[in-house]
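Hey, can you fold this?
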Amino acid sequence: MDKKELALGKTNLILIAIGFLIILIGFFLMTGGGTEQEFNPDIFSKQRIVIAPTVSLFGFIFIIYGIVRKSK
């Protein structure tokens, strides 16, 4: 037993890393402008309300798939 066995295989860890990057992209899409004191109607854009949460949700689902996937 020279080789250390991990609970998840190499493919699983790569899938989890990809899912994490997808989540970061979704959070980046949600970020807003600067620290303005006045009302900015851009906070209700389709990108921030629909696309970004969907991308983040896909990333979380991708991570779950990476954990559940059976290694060969």
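Oh, and this one too while you're at it.
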Amino acid sequence: MDKYETIGARLRQARTIKGLSIPDVFEKTSISRGNLSTLETDKSKPSSDALIVLSDLYGVTTDWILKGEGVGPQFSIKEPAEALYDAGGFPGVPNKKLLSFFEAIAQEWEKGDEETRGWIIVQLRKAFPDIAEKLKKIR
């Protein structure tokens, strides 16, 4: 099972990537803390109103929240460099130019088709052959 296979997991990931706490989301949306918690733990599903508000706040599509398809959370160079991201994000990258570059690649990946994604992988393997070799050994 993919770590972000559920609605709750995707909501939690998006909130974390945006650097928001549950109280922060409550302040910005008026969705109760308890409701936010039950959504993120998959004890309930978001109402259509909550879905739209959270989609707007997190900068993701409602399809991504509901099905994991479409535009997911994007990384912002305005976020603190020391922010910790889940497996779906990048670990804290102190260099804003580097983070901006990763952000651009991630955006191309998200909006691209299989051919585009394949091209990105080929280019990254060419640019970073040592890392590509290490990854082969892990699998």
